[in-house]
Amino acid sequence: MRRGFQGLAVLGLVLIAGCKVGGADRGALAPVGEAATDLVHAQCIRSGGEFVHATGGFLCQSVPRDAGKACSSGRDCESACLSRSRSCAPVTPLLGCNEILNDGGVAVTQCIE
Prior knowledge:
Elements: H1 2-17, H2 33-46, E1 50-54, E2 57-61, E3 81-82, E4 87-88, E5 96-101, E6 107-112
Antiparallel strand pairs: 1-2, 3-4, 3-5, 5-6
């Protein structure tokens, strides 16, 4: 009986040793709070974006490749087609309330806070 218990204990240790915490990095926990914000901020800056304050916290705002390009609907732009200028938005996401052209070319108000 004692030998069966030892085998069971070894099996339990093997199973526990195989567990991963925090993904591929064994023993590493995902950052939270300020550390998580710092990580997102650094990734944003590395990608060429700007970390800006929004209503719900912070977000990464960047300049799309087609900024300023002429457009006739939302399908023509990476971010949004501005209704008045008929040009692709200078940043993404476009914060606040803006008149844009939807994918069908119809003027609508889009609000992102």
